[in-house]
Amino acid sequence: METTTARYAGILFHPTSIRTKYGIGDLGQKAYQFVDKLHSTGATLWQILPLGPTGYGNSPYASRSTFAGNELLIDLETLVREGYLNRNDIAFPPEYTTGRVEFDRVREYKLPLLKQAAKAFLLSRKERMAFADFKKQNESWLDSYAVFMTLYDEKYHDARWMLWDEKYSQQTLKKYSAQAEIYRVLQFFFLKQWLSLKAYANSLGIKIIGDIPIFVGADSADTWANIHLFKTDAKGEYSAISGVPPDNFSATGQRWGNPVYDWKVHEETGFAWWIGRIRKQLELCDIIRIDHFRGFDAYWEVKASCPTAEDGKWVKAPGKAFFKVLEAEFGHLPIIAEDLGFMTESVNRLRKSNHLPGMKIFQFGFTRLPDGSFNTWDTFLPHNWEEDFVAYPGTHDNETIRGWYDSQDEGMKDIVRQYLGSNDEEIVWAFLTSLMLSHAQYAIVQLQDVLGLGNEARMNTPSTCGDFNWSWSVDIEDFTPWHTARFRHLVDISGRNGKTYAERMEELKRKTGQTGRA
Predict the structure, then answer these.
(1) Which of 102, 143, 291, 399 is catalytic?
(2) Main-chain dihedrals φ then ψ at residue 449, nearest 5 degrees
(3) Cβ-based neighbours of 194, under 8 Å, separated by 6 or more
(4) Is 291 part of the annotated catalytic residue set?
(5) Which residues are bridge partners to 335 per DSSP?
């Protein structure tokens, strides 16, 4: 039977993980080199993590703003070429010796240079109309973010705005508007550089999958400027926070600490804030992964005063009305629903009724029945996957394939070897082959797994905080022609080139003058 559905492959790799002499990945030459290498694999998707400016813990899922871009991603060498910095300004960066992103040292070195470039921009007469247009198009969030960061940097040195004397108001925005122009310029730099990189990827047929955490950071410009959209008490402080209930992984549940939405207010405003959030993400990316999708159906709410998540409750959210409004505003949205964890039939209906692909994590599939035998019915095994899913060996929150396999007991290793028909040495590529040949329409692989790296390359360990998380980096040259060729072989044999059978046959017909069928 000839399928009418295109199949896709992609690589998950966050820009901060590109190793540069400036201590962190950026939107410069090496990012373009990665896109070229990705293109050479035949894959047509590049998945990233949230692009927002990170705060304490450096997590892109706890951003200072859901609308702004991470200033640390701005390429200094581009600013030199544009005349906003001198070559000597960036000639002697610190020596970074750990091989990982040292966020504090990077901020200490890079932010003063970025602000220096922003001041030079403001003194020049270049790009004035483009900058004015940028400010007008982004005024719904830009002013509040720029003032928030100015107050954080120059007055309070602490993003916990609940402790500030300066509360959000039009008077506050006006008072600090001139000082905040620096951060407006930095956002202009970021957007210009990012959209240039995105346009280059798109020109090669590569689409970018972005990421939206369903909740926002408590210490963010989003909450500072829009506190009415969140549940608060009589003092104006958060009355409830998000999390997940106790499970096999945690006897006390997980207390995330993000404020929860007052969905009634969102409904009364026609979900205007969310519409703006989605519109911004569609400017930055081609496809959006929404983290913790089940929260649009019901979410675990905990009193802010509770030290754990044990005493929380499930609270219904207006997911049906929300997605109806989004469809009316944007048409059918290119959204991936992160539907991992405890899913109810109600959540599944919400996802399927909106024709959104869910997620499958291959690592999760290797489970045992009560008698210790291999559970071949596990829904995370490739032979049980349906088409409307995005399949991953693991995501940024999981171990790498090699790290996961090496951590298993010998009994589980034998199950994995038998399932994949592989020896220990080839287990990673056997994993990837099984995933790519599955029925899932999308297959996304971490770059760490293409490179065959162990848990030293793990991006994040949930419920932990430290310098190890989010700091993995790699030299782009380590993504060698051998790796790209071998991954391309999997893309080719699995038909994951982003084209339907009919499109592929038409392409062959144009090239050969034949139908392509023997």
Answers:
(1) 291
(2) -75, -35
(3) 27, 51, 69, 73, 284
(4) yes
(5) 288
Instruction: Please name the helix (run of DSSP H) or strand (run of DSSP E) that holds residue 271, with its range, or none.
Output: none
SS3 state at 511:
helix
517: pLDDT confidence band, cut at 50, 70 and 90?
Answer: low
- Which residue in 181, 219, 301, 338 is the catalytic one? 338
pLDDT, tens digit (0-9, with 9 covering 90-100), for 3-24: 568 999 999 999 999 999 999 9
Rounded distance between C-alpha atoms, residue 290 and residue 281, angstroms: 11
For tokens 């706890």, name the residue.
62
Which of 153, 388, 397, 426 does the annotation list as catalytic?
397
- Pull the structure tokens for residue 462: 């949930």
- List residues bridging with 242 in a β-sheet: 301
Rounded to whole angstroms, how far apart are CA atoms 513 and 507?
Answer: 10
Q: Could you tell me the CA-to-CA distances from 321 to 244, 268, 275, 385, 403 in Å, in that order?
A: 24, 12, 13, 29, 42
Coil, helix or strand at residue 428: helix
Q: And the tokens for 296?
A: 């649009």
Mean residue pLDDT across the chain: 95
Is 397 one of the annotated active-site residues of the chain?
yes
